[in-house]
Amino acid sequence: MKISQLDTPALLVDLDKMNQNIETMQQRINDLGLMLRPHTKAHKSPIIAQRQIDAGAKGICVAKLGEAEVMAEGGISDILITTPIAGEKKIQRLINLYLKYPDFRFIQVIDHHDHVAKIGQFALKAGVCVELMIEVESGQQRCGVDVGEPLLELIRAIKNTQGVSYAGIQAYSGHLQHVKGYAERNHQARNAVTSLFNFISEVLEPKELAPEMISGGGTGTYAAYQDLSFSEIQAGSYLFMDAAYQAIGDEHSHLENNQFSPALKVISTVISAPTEKRRVIDAGMKCLSIDLGMPKLEHTEGVRYQTGGDEHGILHLEDGEGLPKLGQKVILLPSHCDTTLNNFDTIYVVQGENVVDEWPILGRGRSD
């Protein structure tokens, strides 16, 4: 089928651009002497995760246990769960992953002594050993134990608790991924973790408690940590490159990031033409996430998208020759790929003007 034959609104991925993004990021990470562990919250698809692994990624990240369950069922065997869990139901689900997939690797991020004690208790009872990675505070002031004595005590707690093991440290500065300007972004990202690496060299290494794995970084900051001892990078959005990431700048431009190509798109139809300078399309907030700004029309200048509510988007002619006609289809570039993708059940895979495949978004809605 042709793209123009799709009913709308629909989610598209440009296969050639996505494949090139996978290859480009893998090569960049290889050149830095690091490993890539892409974050799959951007795509929520075991099919795409396997493509990333086939290209050289060592494993994947997921944000939630529900995503880990989906990825494991899809055959992905090395999974880092980047968000702490709490409560008996969640802990038992984690243990169940170990029991159901004994040859797979699951690493659970934690940041509190209670995590260690309770996961250890459940694991010991089940006869498994759960790998724990400690998240440290890296400027975002979200999750994470403070660098210093609290971190040292938590490492010792893991070492002294049966049923768990010390896998390493997570240091992710999510709040810096969209800082404008390549040099400034990398400068801030490096400064955010300097105290951690000083603590590792000055305190943890002499005590033989240095982590084997240090995981973090993202699409905006993956190149910020040269000469530090990060072992793996968690970048995810590079796969699709949304409009927000395109605006942060790269090595060559302060205003545009052209390291990767925009591969994720939404096709929509003009359903109303109230005036010469206004059109209404069938893609509103239930399709296009606006938490990082408004989407952009592909290959169109002088037209601004405004959210019109749950079901409607409004196109305004600000500087141009005309707007699309009633019934005409338009293609938009999302501002935030993760939250836009989570609005759809299916990705239509396209090459040129043709739809060549359909991939189910199996992790859609799995925020559990």
TrEMBL record:
Has UniProt tagged this entry with the keyword Lyase? yes
Q: Which domain of life does the UniProt lineage start with?
A: Bacteria
Task: Name any Gene Ontology BP term.
Answer: D-serine catabolic process
Q: Key word Secreted present in the record?
A: no
Q: Which UniProt keywords apply?
A: Lyase
Can you tell me which residues the record assigns to a coiled coil? none
Give a Pfam family name.
D-ser_dehydrat
| Any GO molecular function | D-serine ammonia-lyase activity
List each copy of the D-serine dehydratase-like domain by range.
263-351
State the family it belongs to: Belongs to the DSD1 family.
Q: Which PANTHER family match?
A: D-SERINE DEHYDRATASE, ZGC:162816-RELATED
The name this protein goes by in its record: Alanine racemase domain-containing protein
Q: Which organism is it from?
A: Vibrio caribbeanicus ATCC BAA-2122
